[in-house]
Amino acid sequence: MEPVPLQDFVCALDPATLPRVLRVCSGVYFQGSIYEISGNECCLSTGDLMKVTQLRLQKVVCENPGSGQTIELDPNFKGHFSPLTGPQSYGTLEELVSAVVQSSKQLPIWFMSTCRIDTRMRVVPEEQPLMLEAVEMYLGTCSARCVLSMGTQVVVLHLPLSMKGPFWELQTGAPRTLLQALQDPALKGLLLTCPTLPWRSLILRPHYEIQAIMQMRRTIVSIPSTLEVDVEDVTASSEHIHFIQPLLLSEVLARGGPFPLNTQILEVPEGPPIFLSPWVGSLRKGQGLCIHGLASPPWRVLASTKGRKVPRYFMVSGAYHGKLRRRPREFTTAYDLLGALQPGRPLRVVAMKDCEGDEEEIPGFTSLAMGDRLEVLGAGQAHGSHGGDMDILMCHRLSDQAGEEECEEEAEDQEQIVLPLYFSGSFVEEMSDTRRYNLADLTAQFSLPCEVKVVTKDSSHPADPLPLFPGLRLEEKITEPFLLVSLDSEPGMYFEIPPRWLDLTVVEEEHPYRPAGSLPAATVEELTDAFYYHLRKLPASESQGPPPRPPKRQNLSEQKKRSGLEGNIKSSLVSELQQRPLLPKLKMTTLAKATEDRSNTYSKIPPRTGLKPTKCSTLDPDGDEHDYEEVVERFQKTL
After folding, report:
1. Nearest to residue 358, comparing CAs of 603, 545, 569, 16?
2. Residue 468 and residue 361 in contact, taking contact as beta carbons nearer than 8 Å
């Protein structure tokens, strides 16, 4: 085949013969873009091969051959087209009939008039196709019996042969839609007419988008048919040519097989690594990679180490076979306690430091001493002193005895306290669970986050690092498809790759791969800090709302006024105590009165049975409470 312009080749191409392999005979470069403009390929080099798989009609340009004017038509254009046999017109119907008889054509024929035809029955618009069925006498006049089709309505008209035109003969056949006119090989290059367009004759020039496969191009290439390039059809001599089409791992995952799939790495995504595993350095261009299929199960757990200044982060597969033992969880706020509470599972904690409450702010918000045992009951609401309802956590203060020794009568007398959700403290879970769990059972029975200790390593993972740490915090469970892969250079190394975050570009290779025996999967992968925090920002991690903010306190001016007033009261109290005679009884009375007046500043925790009185460790040494304690201490020394 001789080289032809791409537009001419596409217009003459029968879509039923696709696919076709073309070779570019003269390349083209479109200034302004190296590869594509508006999603279309615009740079083809001489010698390039492409396999045309599909044609898509983009638009049709209607051209007036006389004036050169053009109109763009949408592929869904509703008008009908009829072909003209040539540029000759006839002045009367008699001339048209005589020309048909002389050319030995048989009736019926199609024709039209460029002027409006007025009859008794109907007005025929200009350029409306008519079918001339026969010539006969009608009302004493030699007439042409014509048929006018208006949609579903058919009208028979008798036009005298003496009627003046001009008239144009149309090719035999009914008017065609735009797509029918473009697909009919007999109409290619002919003049057409359409009653809904302003010109008597026109030429249709379709513009196609060519869908093709090219060497080393990952996606289907879109090429405009108007690209000024010459091509030749080499389909017959290209049966041995194999078009190499790169794939992304995400595309392999979406395709779903067949597996195993032997590939070669073409490109590795740029950017910092996400795993700290030794196989990361082997992912480079040219490395053979065998994809064995989907890793099972699809869920993983994010974990961080405990007991180290610099934590390390891991992704643990659901197939992990190590044994884990629960460790007491630590909580810093009442909001954390509420998040850890599960229906049907009692949650008991021990306070690890003294914390001061404020019953005036929220009724029942009492102080806690280090060693206090609490049983978390659930969420509630209380009316705060600042107005409006506040979210609270309801708890029972337990005795120092073990929970098993508590009887029902004692449970009824337990003190109920409330903690606002913004309350900050230090709590440790009270537990006596010594069972050993596998990862699947642990995540099914207990909510995350969860504190654990790996007591038995995974036997299928000889380099399992998790038992080396004194504790792990299982943060959250994520579900994401991974692909199980291995390297050709190291056949015994199997690992899992998440295409969502490590989308390698590969190319399929011909020779098959035959794995030997079962496939050991790496169940623990260490993560970089950046990737770990990226995973914690996923929507699954954002399902929990932030903890509530504490209520607003008094403004700064009111606090200064109140602190100044309290300072004056304390200074007058000190001078009064120094001037009076040292009478122990009067001094004790004065102390009791001062303490009573200052009940809002400091209140002593009432002693309880079985609890050791402790001093509050949250007082500010520079605050008002410290000044008051100095006054009391000095006064007691004078007794």
Report:
1. 603
2. no
In the numeric block, the tokens 């001419």 are attached to 8
Residue whose C-alpha is closest to residue 28's, from 315, 224, 219: 224
Helix axis angle for 556-579 and 624-637, nearest 10°, is 10
DSSP per-residue codes, 449-478: SEEEEEEE--TT-TT--GGGSSEEEEEEEE
Residue 452: partners with Cβ closer than 8 Å, 6 or more residues away: 324, 325, 326, 327, 437, 442, 471, 472, 473, 474
Contact (CB, 8 A) for 466 and 472: yes
Q: What is the DSSP letter of 549?
A: P
Distance CA 64, CA 86 (A): 15
Query: pLDDT digit string (tens) for 487-509?
Result: 888 877 889 999 999 999 998 88
Structure tokens at 307: 């007991």
| Dihedral angle of Cα 592, 594, 600, 606, to the nearest 10 degrees | -20
The mean pLDDT value of the chain amounts to 78
pLDDT in tens, 39-76: 455 577 788 888 888 899 999 999 887 678 899 999 89
Please determine, for residue 520, whether its predicted confidence score (pLDDT) is greater than 80: no
Identify the band that residue 256 occupies on the pLDDT scale cut at 50, 70 and 90.
confident
| Identity of the residue numbered 615 | K
Residue with tokens 């080393």: 216
**Structure token pair of residue 300:** 């993983």
Amino acid found at 612: K
Q: Is the confidence at residue 309, as pLDDT, over 50? A: yes
220 within 8 A of 55, measured Cβ to Cβ: no
Q: Is the pLDDT of residue 114 over 70?
A: yes
* Over residues 426-445, mean pLDDT: 88
Pull the structure tokens for residue 581.
């005679």
Rg (Cα) of the chain, in Å, rounded?
45
Alpha helices (H) along 256-295:
none
Give dist(CA 463, CA 454) in Å, integer: 14
- Assess whether the previous peptide bond of 449 is cis (omega < 30° from 0): yes
How far is Cα 123 from Cα 497, in angstroms, rounded to an integer?
75
